[in-house]
Amino acid sequence: MHGSQNPSTICSLGRSDVLEAARRLAGQIVRTPTIRANLLEGEAGCELYLKAENLQHIGAFKARGALHAVGRLSEEARARGVITYSSGNHAQAVAMAARRFNIAATIAMPEDAPAVKVAGVRREGATIVIAGTTSDDRKQRAHEIAAETGATIIQPFDDDHVIAGQGTATLELLEDTRALGVKLDALLVPTGGGGVLAGACLAAADEDFPIYTVEPHGCDAMTRSLSRGERVAVQPGPTLGDGLKPVMVGERNFAIAKGRADSGVLVDDDDMGHALVGLLLRHKLLVEPSGAAGLAVALKRRLPGTPRRVGVMLTGGNVDVSLVSSLIAQHGERWSASG
Fold first, then answer.
1. CA-closest candidate to residue 287, choices 120, 92, 59, 117
2. Burial bucket for residue 325 (CB in 10 Å: 0-12, 13-18, 19+)
3. Quick one: DSSP state of residue 303?
4. In angstroms, rounded to a whole number, what is the distance separating the alpha carbons of residues 190 and 135?
């Protein structure tokens, strides 16, 4: 499926929009490193090039899209404030962007949002409104507040400026690997609503390698949508990958992905935990389970064919200490035994 990009008229974004976002974001974001994970390559059976967005502002790629979207608002819109709905990383990103531009922010978060992400939003000074447990619950509450206050909604993923901003992560990954003389054979992208995936598809529009979506079992909205050729709603099941469980992927995101992304690959909690602990013990990098999903696929050798050089998006690193401790207890011995 990884032919030329041909999104529908729903979205007119192109690679030039990602390049423009990169120009606007220069100096505002961290140019995170692309890390050659040579200590994990024996298990993966291929070269691994990890884009470490866990080292980004607020610990996730979401900072890119939020800063780009908020930065594009008019002074009049900024005066009315911003609002969003998110289980965590986008919430922190919008809160941070609002603080940077000295504007008010309200965040609708779920009842079961990870404590580390709630704390991150509070540190940035945003107002938190708790709204149910599903993305639809918090979306509805955010729209209600926006109607009451006139605040601008910064969409978590289905927004042109957000998508273009997220695409700058893949743009940097490609620049870094090119500088090393490396041509990727595949790219693995953990996928929730599809913002970072859509951005990756735009940034890599001129490349010929496949882009694989990675989702937890039972939360595979993008995989099912790509298979059906239309957006499919799911009722997300339980997963450690709390950032990868939308009811439905974004309309713009799907329009872009269906012309460029390949079929999805699914992971479970054990896969993500194993990858998280391996990355921590071998390379001293801490990611959250969602951020480890792409690496989990590589370590399990679940990609079609035998790609030699694989790019992996490490999308975030916001994880509760108690969960890290539990996962080390569960998976640490396997890594120690494997040398």
1. 59
2. exposed
3. S
4. 18
- Enter the pTM of the model: 0.92
DSSP single-letter state for residue 29: S
How many whole angstroms from its chain centre is CA 111?
A: 21
Query: Of 132, 85, 84, 131, nearest to 104 (Cα)?
Result: 84
Q: Are 151 and 73 in contact (CB under 8 A)?
A: no
Which of 214, 165, 215, 208 is CA-nearest to residue 185?
Answer: 208
Task: Examine the fold and report which residue of 153, 177, 209 is the final residue of a domain before the chain moves on.
Answer: 153
Band the pLDDT of 286: cuts 50, 70, 90.
very high
CATH of the domain at 311: 3.40.50.1100
Q: Is residue 289 assigned to a domain?
A: yes
For the beta carbon of residue 117, count every other beta carbon within 10 angstroms: 27
Question: C-alpha angle with apex 177: 171 to 180, nearest 5 degrees?
Answer: 145
Kind of pairing between the strands at 47-52 and 152-153:
unpaired
